[in-house]
Amino acid sequence: MSIENRPARQWLLSLPSLTWLAMFFVIPAILVIITAFRSADLQGGVGPGWTLATLREVQDPAYLPILWRTVWLSGVTTVVCLALALPVAFQMASAGQRMQQLLLLLVVIPFLSNFLIRIFAWKSLLHPEGPLTKLLIGLHLIPENAVLLNHVGTVLLVLVYTQLPFAILPLYAAAEKFDFGLLDAARDLGAGPWRAFFKIFVPGVSRGIISAAVMVFVCCLGQYVIPQMVGGTSDEMLGSKIAQRVFSDRNLPHASALAGGLMLAVLVPMVVIVLWQQFGRKEAE
Amino acid sequence: MEDFLVIDHVSKTFGAQRVVDDVALTVAEGESFSLLGPSGCGKTTLLRMIAGFEQPDRGRILVGGRDITSLPPEQRPVNTVFQNYALFPHLSVWENIAFGLRMSRRPREEIRSGVERMLELVRLSEHARKRPAQLSGGQRQRVAIARALVNRPQVLLLDEPLAALDLKLRQHMLMELNTIHEQVGTTFIYVTHDQGEAMSLSDRIAVMNAGKVEQVDSPENLYETPRSSFVASFIGDANFFTGVVVELQHEGYVRVLVEGLGSPLVLRNGAISSNLTLRLMVWPEKISLTLTRPSSGERVNAFRGVVEDMAYFGSHTRYRIRAGEHSILAQLQRSRFSGGEIDPARGAEVWMSFHPDEGRVVRLEAAA
Q1: Which ipTM score applies to this complex?
Q2: Torsions phi, psi of B133, nearest 5?
Q3: Does B108 share its domain with B170?
């Protein structure tokens, strides 16, 4: 039909997914923020009336180190995941068709087992009586009394482990569309293999890098199971605190204020970045 | 001087297939040289070996006397214009051209002047800030040429440089490439499957077939004296006849009996003895068509035939003429109607004639 009809029809096509998003994402998110302004009742529900008291409670300086740990753990996890996923995506995309399918399957296989079970597997692997600790002590790589578990490093390790596929998949999708002939051109113009990789391949998959970074970073921010299971008492992340407020303290408004704050802290920079890119693109044209 | 680029008996095998088979070529400094052949003849593999993307199994490649066979691409004094141009999409035209100079860490001022000089050479100065996606096909190609030439390579390789352009632009770029070659004086090596492109771009052409070089010659010599029927058929729509030598004449002519057609007289080249089976070739435009038998003496080869098909091309018309089992292509220039030539209709009976000097012996075959 005519071109004027096309936007309308596209809206119609995306109506189901938009409805889904509105029902199960936007409205709950707004409810969370609203709850932050209600008072808590003793049964763990929401009391009558409105209050700003929760907002003041949340500004407790005790949260600052936790917030900082959450941000740096997520940041470092993101950087490590990208550093590991870039060469993997490069190799996957430049492999043959059959090899690509096999590698893709290998990346996805961990998802077939339950998340908690995989974390638990790490817990027993790193346990002082576990095989890895014994092996490393046997090889004299770590001191006899070393404990691999309950470390902030352990949290980081397991975070990287769980998030790595989320970095590999968007990067692979971008790398698959990358024209590897460009690397020949870069080599031809005097770039060694490494410079060709960093000057041409990395910018070539920049969209994949942004998706992967956002994916990993945002998923890390909300983590609470990993610090709880493999981290020590001083390795809590903000997610752990939110979970505590819900499950132990049964203080929904307080949990909502923390969750809403975290959500806004992620959302606002992303919106700014998107707007800035949009603006920048118009500028370039 | 003569041996600037030397391909010294180079072979390359992929799996069970010998893609390049003992190729030996020399190219002079400043020459523009074409590797011409059908797809799969090994010309692109040969180019990639000169650029350094493939390693030869045997043989050496030398540029200016230096053996570059084992050097990686980034260390070779050779740059490439890729078939799809392979411009870096995230960089501006300016940065694309500057890339090679940046990689060799030249001083900023040298990069600036080098890029500006190249932009001027390919007349793209006003597009310097654009991204490749904002350029037309012809402009992209000029960026690719500038990006390669800015490094002052000793040899410039051009892989099917015109294949991605439409006909009109292709003819324009053909002239432009010749101008650029004249201005920079670098040795140009073209790879192409288009004989017209090769003919109008190069001083010499190597015709390749199945990994081997069939003939290396100037465009004129390739056209006038193709050494094999493969070369002749690749260069143009040649007419071929198989015949047996029946008479050796003085002044270097031989009479050849062609079954079902007659016994034309042609120029001999090389040693030819009686009763030898050989192949003759005549270009379509060398054949004249008349209604009556041409009377210019016995030195003219004339045969009767019936017009089977014809096609009008504007500047010329092509006729397919049947004579017994033979189907012969003749081409008439539109401006030559005065010379007793005709405008035959389909089904008309005509005389085809050509001068003995226009008939070529292209391949000698051992007598059966």
Answers
A1: 0.81
A2: -65, -20
A3: yes
